[in-house]
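One example given next:
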Amino acid sequence: GLDQGPGIRLALELTAPAPDVVPAVSVPAVPAPTPARRTPDLVVRALGPLQVFRDGERIEPGAWGSARPRELLVHLLLHPDGCTKEQVGLAFWPEASSAQVRNSFHVTLHRLRKALGHPEWIVPANDRYLLDPSLTVEFDATRFEKEITGALKSGSADELSRALELYQGDFLDGESAGDWHLEYRERLQRLYVDGMTALSGLLMAETRFGEAAEVSRRILARDPMHEESWRRLMVCHAQAGERAQAMRVYHQLADLLRREFESEPDPATTALFRNIQAGKRVQSA
């Protein structure tokens, strides 16, 4: 609000009705969680380069011995009910014999426990190995999947934006990991693009065309063939009175499709281009 002198502020405080004052004062007074509860035992960031934090401190890359123990940790996080040695072996060493799997698994498990500094965090139960369920764990990949799915259902632009901020890069980007993670990576990539596409549509519906154009550009940076985003970018420019720029976007798409696939834009895209070219008002893509 406006900058108020101390006299005005005091007068406002003295004359404000009591019911208005109580909530404003009482909200910050709610006891905050204790620091011990605030810091998770384990924080794993796997969207983008893999980072692992134990009790708030990052575990340095050299502590792992190799990439496999980190990979095993992520694999266990994605299987909270646990995995058998055989299941891990199939994912990590598909060509290895049973004896080789057994040996490789135990070496990898030993290194993981050592890097974590808490051997008891990996629990054996009924031939399975799992992370101790009593641990407080923050894992961005599963959190993103849950939050983006909920946000897509809610249809809230702000909720979608918050969920999309969790996606800091592709799952295990740059990490040496087996093929098992590719299916999960692709699923998260699809969810990200679906979320971004829904967000651009919601922003356009709210006539926030500048923001919608930026989201469309980010989709196209990831998937240059996402033709719906090309159309939305055209509409955003047209709505901003940038008709020449909107037509230029169409020609960029047409050139790309001819060069890469020897094909033409969809009829819907061409029809939109014709309407913009004719100076007609366009509302949607």
Notes: The chain has 13 helices and seven strands. The chain has a mean pLDDT of 88. The first helix runs from residue 6 to 15.
